[in-house]
Amino acid sequence: MQLSTKHLLGIKDLPASDISLILSTAQQFKEVLQRPIKKVPSLRDVTVVNLFYENSTRTRISFELAEKRLSADTINFTTSSSSVSKGETLLDTVHNILSMKVDMVVMRHSASGAPHFLAKHLPHTAIINAGDGINEHPTQALLDAFSIEEKIGTLEGKKIVLVGDIMHSRVALSNIYLLKKMGAEVMLSGPPTLIPNYAKEALGVQVEYNLAKALKWCDVANVLRIQLERQQQVLFSSLREYNLAYGISSKLLASINKEIVIMHPGPINRGVEIDSEVADSHQSIILQQVENGVAVRMAVLYLLSGKKGE
Fold first, then answer.
1. What is the CATH number of the domain that holds 85?
2. Is the dihedral of CA 13, 290, 31, 65 positive or negative?
3. What is the phi/psi pair of residue 38, to 5°?
């Protein structure tokens, strides 16, 4: 089997069959990662450029590790050490890189739609979106889905609440698209100023501003980071006030009288959106998300490479 697409630009236009194929392939690669020798020759002679125009630690390292586990040749590109700082355009940069016969590009960019721009101009090179502006972050949604299935089984019929800064979160948008495609129910919870007023109608989700009610409803709570760097105006009074109203604490979880799964895409603002006691508890699968990210990104790279067999 193979994916129906040459690129992974987002979840919005990705068929459910492609999502299922990526998740099942990721399971095979997770088994590889449990072996004493964790490396396979699946992408030998394939060259991958990691093109990061935005700061990233977890996603970039996860992709790099996935590429190395697959035996790919990798080139790491950051704007601070490139000709971008001298005024080179995005398309010039990519043409220069592709003149080196690159097969795949993993891209993160602050502008929504940047990976789509690359795919339009470079149709024969596989483009993987590692996060574009406030649009999408498809591999994060895929690893979140993989982690949920690993913990509680199929997504069909499960109730997932996304908590926090929905307005500025590309993780939230990709998660919403994926979860709905796979048959889950989705609810958003957070301050009214951080939830788009079009969410119910345009995205087909529920909205609950009372966090305790949202937690009582759900099977899984995916807690999102407050993205102060993307907020152009003050959208809540203070971080302390936010924590009191929408922070996930052990006291709050005890009050809802049911056990739910806690997730977070990271990096965590401890004491703001989630307390350390919760983040480190048995209900949390945050570290499993990090581990699963490598397997899921291995699956995406492998499937988009068009290689057959390990």
1. 3.40.50.1370
2. positive
3. -95, 5
For residue 274, list its beta bridge partners: 248, 270
Q: What residues form DSSP beta bridges with 73?
A: 47
Distance of CA 16 to the CA centre of its chain: 17
* Domain-located, residue 115: yes
pTM of the predicted protein model: 0.93
Q: Containing domain of residue 233, as a range?
A: 138-289
254 in the same domain as 174: yes
| Total domains, the chain | 2
Which H or E run includes 210? none
Q: Are 20 and 3 in contact (CB under 8 A)?
A: no
What pLDDT is stored for residue 143 in this prediction?
98
**Residue 57 has what pLDDT?**
86
Distances (CA, A) of 127 to 39, 136, 175: 23, 14, 20
Question: What is the Cα Rg of the chain in Å?
Answer: 19
| pLDDT at position 231 over 60 | no
pLDDT tens-digit map of 23-78? 999 999 999 999 999 999 999 999 999 999 888 889 999 999 999 999 999 999 87
Is the model more confident about 202 or about 88?
202
Name the amino acid, one letter, at 138: P
